[in-house]
């Protein structure tokens, strides 16, 4: 990625440190895909940076072939994730929205821990534990194996209650919203 420093109001964070999360994840994901003969599909995050992103992911995958999905329209990300059974993400509104739409998603939301941003955790501003059935705020071999196993072996009957229990609250007839608006 271009530039030397990503600046936050906490401290200056180098691009190397900011993107360490991707490196840690891809150091585990690429061998997993190789061992299991899986195709890796990467959805571009930002249209204006797609050529940089593609080069960055080529370096991260170290010659492993992957499909890089570029934006063709506003809906490209949604259309793409809807075609896959499993979704692995770091920190992404598309991943969060995919959970809400019933997709099997695991999240390695470790950037906050790596960059020293205390509120950059999975589910923030909710106060969730650092590890759940389908997320973690750290990336290591144990956490990777734990989440991959849940992603690939949990039935829909196991999966749906976990998401609803942790993130989604059914609010019949929206009384909470009505109270807020009154």
Work out the radius of gyration: 17 Å
The biggest sheet amounts to: 4 strands, mixed
Quaternary state of the chains: single chain
Question: Stretches where pLDDT falls below 50 for ≥5 residues?
Answer: none
Structural class: alpha/beta
Structure explained in plain terms:
The chain is an alpha/beta fold. The chain has a single domain, classed as Rossmann fold (3-Layer(aba) Sandwich), CATH 3.40.50. The protein has 9 helices and 8 strands. It has a 4-stranded mixed β-sheet with strand order 5-6-8-7, sandwiched between helices. The protein has a two-stranded antiparallel ribbon with strand order 1-2. A hairpin with a 2-residue loop joins strand 7 and strand 8. The longest helix is centred in the N-terminal third of the chain and has 16 residues.
List the helices and strands and how they pair.
Elements: E1 5-7, E2 12-14, H1 15-18, H2 20-35, E3 40-43, H3 50-61, E4 66-69, H4 76-82, E5 86-89, H5 93-100, E6 104-108, H6 111-115, E7 131-132, E8 135-136, H7 141-153, H8 156-166, H9 175-181
Parallel strand pairs: 3-4, 5-6, 6-8
Antiparallel strand pairs: 1-2, 7-8
